[in-house]
Amino acid sequence: MVKRVLIRGLEAGSAYLAYLLRESGVEVDIQTSNPSDPLLDIPPFAPLFTLDFIKEVLAVRLVEQPAGSYDVVVDSCDVVGLEGIREVLNSDVPVYIIGDGWLSASLSLYRSLPVPDVDVDLPVEKTNNFKEFSVKYRPYVGGNYSICGSFRDAWGGCLYAPMRALERIFAAVDAYASIMGLEAPRRKLRLEYAVGRDRFYAAVGCRPEGKASKINVGDAQIWIYGEEGAPRYLFFQGRPEHAPWFFAVYNLARAVDSAFLYDFSTQGRGGFNLAFVGHLFRKLRE
């Protein structure tokens, strides 16, 4: 029976893990070198919790150093350097978060601004006129589980660190399930996304490789890459209201490569089902 857990790092994923553990009656300490009152994510995304909720309602202790013994240690990361971004959000200048083009795209799309012309290729207006800021993720290593460390993508095999907060939240759910003896996916898929007021873009996998095919489903478009029935990379563009469907299929795909075959609803076959079967099954028909 798990009674006491140490989470090292304060961000959206570790906050959600702390919430799940406390709801299960587990004592939780969060070790952080950044015990300020952040949004626990980067604007424009809504915060999961405030620090007051974490400390006063959930009774989670924020500590600078661990104290005593723990049944489980979970490594996350401290997210620092948000102050400059909060200031620039009040202006009409595109922002480039150094090394994180997808987040930069989200900030621009949210404010209906052109996207910085950097390391992400999205079908939107781009600009070379932008301000640069740095957001740092200070990872902790050596624990029983990791939320913000290095993962290996199950499709392409590359090593990567999850940058989008939602992937870290999904990883937190995986860690919670494993800690509590529940079933959880054993593999990771790299997830990137940018979301604005009326646009949603997402990519899964390391890089576009293999044969490519595109399909239109209503006002959404899907590009899927792969070979011989196995997906390697997926790119999606649509509206923000498509996001729950996309992330539902993404989470299923973390369990099985055949996830897209289950993309059905009362409206019939979904876009991922059509793209997967029509494109990747060509090799199997030869």
Automatic annotation (TrEMBL):
Organism: Pyrobaculum aerophilum (strain ATCC 51768 / DSM 7523 / JCM 9630 / CIP 104966 / NBRC 100827 / IM2)
Name the UniProt record assigns to this protein: Uncharacterized protein
Domain of life: Archaea
